[in-house]
């Protein structure tokens, strides 16, 4: 499990079936064993040793294995072996079909070092196989090394292990915290059926409030007997609060108004981290996350600047460089990228239309993008990186399908984990155009046109031309659908109903242009007026996009008549009423109630998208019930759930750390980082399609079908279209509080003539913390060069920083600008951040000086 969690508990009995491995002790030399040609094997001192060459890219580039292994469906097996390697490496141990489609019955990532170690795995075969294969995949090392095996055994008759996830305290809370004036709810897992007393204590252990729980019975999503509790009447800001019930104590949490400022920034930084075609700068993200540009044609990359079509389906190449890597792989998908870009743009567009929304936090110089300082809001700079790519995916003029958009671009074959983008050796290929992809470009480019009009008129005009061209092409080719079998090297992303994409694109084009043609397309759509069709109960997604168009129609000024606008807004509020009712009725407060509790792949994004609808309804009506449901959704995502798990990296004591990703892969390679703070895991998925989930989670309750393991791509992947609604919601939630401008420290007595103001926010996680600092020049002259100094009150140690040069001597810290942010104009700001380790509370400093003068600290 993740670094913040203790090891799960397993219970298994030894296997007693017949031995299925031939010559597992190598007493008969190499009989029964094979290896790939590049890694010749021989028996040395009673062990089979293979010489693995340097520079293999994927685990399967070098293999030692044995074929002819019979497996029976439903049978439990125990696999054990002893392995060593002269270079530390993570190998993949697979029991699988010996031919395509290589169906895998067991897969594990095993860390092997110079010291011979015995490893044991128990699994259940999902199918019958007359001649399966045991394959030790040992490629993927830059260095040549020797791999050795001994005592290999595979026997049937094993009792499958009973996986018991470590869920920590049965008192479940939002591990980040609660807004001062917002709802404050939690859940308690217990066998008791009568009400119990809860006690709220502060960081010193002093009782501050108490009450009684409400028994709720058995929660169908978790199969747990639960109580809920409400401490919303307590509104005193502070950190380190806990709730105790029946001798059990929750994880600590805060109460305050600036809890989500750093989450807004981190969730948006996710997109810069995952840019393709550009170096990721240590000055922006820290040394740990810096990396060379990927897919720019520098060996071993073949590059994205002249990409041919898959299986020769076209005779041209396209420059499709740039954009965002979609998820755990290096693919770029238009239907996933379209909704992601739209929601990033909508995060900004909301600040232009919603009362109390703070666009300053998204403005020029505020986010981690290299374009900062160009006079354009940083969030639009980030969106432009993706929109430019999406428009590059269009079929050029003169071709048969001119104006259509290619569905995706990715590697010819799957690559293994871990692999940084610049190390990817696979050929890249464009997959055929589709109507869905084309309408994604039309919708996103129409939104882009109106948002960039005031910042870059030429780019806005390019966006509008692309939008209208794509719309015309989609109307001419309304039923070109993605092949559901096109899933080699990248996801298929097939969709057999594009009415929702037509609705979305028509809505965005109408809002931008006001043309009646697009209005009629909206009003005449079979989806229009059908709330359940526009806003599915299970949530918006890349395959259900009509709601994006309705949200724009409902919130962005346009030429709908009063009656037409009222009808659209009624769809929004009707959908929000349903989601709010789901939240109120749920034992864990989650605004998500799919049919039969069927939590889907990426369920956390479905939760977030329901929260976007709720938040929009709150913006439109001011009704607190919608706001409260949004905040209960954040509670669920940040720890108030059946697993007591924060699904957002860097937020909460028990946060996800091992999401499925090719270059944030610390679980497989300790030289690589965990996911960056602000990365949201996909979450529970009852279909548990990957081998790790199938091994561990058979029979899981719907909301508990999750494991924080890098190999569990079905429950623990991270993607751009899941982080986009997280960024939207973090921005909304921060606006509900103080928008990053928290109240003064109770012990602070700033002078009336202070010429600087510092907003310092931190979030702790197990053994560490993340802090964000914003410095505002409140003086009368521009500062050319700045130096910020403060001292920690405890044992905090900074390990990495971005947007500033930060040095620490003992408890004293000095922060200086990087090349591009050395000037702070009057009333201007600069922001930077850092991560670190701490064994204590990681308290914020109460005294900070700028160029030797004391600042007001907020």
UniProtKB/TrEMBL annotation:
SMART domains the record matches: CBD_II
Domain of life: Bacteria
Keywords assigned: Carbohydrate metabolism, Cellulose degradation, Glycosidase, Hydrolase, Polysaccharide degradation, Signal
Keyword Hydrolase included in the entry's annotation: yes
Annotated catalysed reactions: Endohydrolysis of (1->4)-beta-D-glucosidic linkages in cellulose, lichenin and cereal beta-D-glucans
UniProt feature, compositional bias: Polar residues: 209-225
InterPro entries with a match to the protein in the record: 6-hairpin_glycosidase_sf (IPR008928), 6hp_glycosidase-like_sf (IPR012341), CBD2 (IPR001919), CBM2/CBM3_carb-bd_dom_sf (IPR008965), CBM2_carb-bd_dom_sf (IPR012291), Cellulase_Ig-like (IPR004197), CenC_carb-bd (IPR003305), Galactose-bd-like_sf (IPR008979)
Enzyme type, top EC level: hydrolase
Active site: 708, 717
Pfam family, one: Glyco_hydro_9
EC number: 3.2.1.4
GO biological process, any: cellulose catabolic process
GO molecular-function terms, A-Z: cellulase activity; polysaccharide binding
Limits of the CBM2 domain: 749-858
Region (Disordered): 203-225, 355-375
Similarity comment text for this entry: Belongs to the glycosyl hydrolase 9 (cellulase E) family.
PANTHER family found in the cross-reference section: ENDO-1,4-BETA-GLUCANASE (PTHR22298)
Protein name: Endoglucanase
